Predict the 3D structure of the following.
Amino acid sequence: MSSTAPAATQRITLFYQDYVGKKVAMALSGVVLFGYVIIHMAGNLQIFAGREQLNAYAQALHANVPLLWIARIVLLLAVGIHFYTGISLAGASRAARPVRYQVKGQRHPNLAGRTMALSGLVLAAFIVFHILHLTTGTVQPAPFADLRPYDNMVNSFRVIPVAGFYVLSVCLLGLHLYHGAWSMFQSVGFNHPRYTPALRRFAAVFAFLLAIGFSVVPIAVLTGMVR
């Protein structure tokens, strides 16, 4: 038993060092992040149900502290793996091939593919700001109250630069998710003339809905729909 764990760890490490292993790591960490952004968006949209509903939702999330920290650790690991592996894959592709990696017969979506590195860096900065802003209250462009996300979001998104940066970031998130979802489908072998157009449309609709779902909150605050 004692030798089994090191052997398994070594196999995982060797697999990750391979190009295909890194693609798998990107896909798996991406699935975790996809799930998180869907749940996070659904939580944010409860702002339209009113102050009591959104604040009660936040309090319910924080009621189970151990589970909350497990989720945070898993999410942090997924972000770290995704970010580091993305940089590693980009460097390996440039160093090893004059022509970037692509699945046979398919090209990455142009705009999304070209902005992948930029959107990743902006999103990394946005994640740090978002945590310090609406999670810990360390950065306070507006008054902050613990476990009162309705008031925190309304007060913050009334500040135009904050709302603008948020909308820009979630639009880049949409491009990033479009490219990421499409690449994930290709990486796991879903590359067939019969299914490829449908999968590409699914990736586009998925990313568009998420971008709209996140953007609508600051826009609603700025326009006075949510007060």
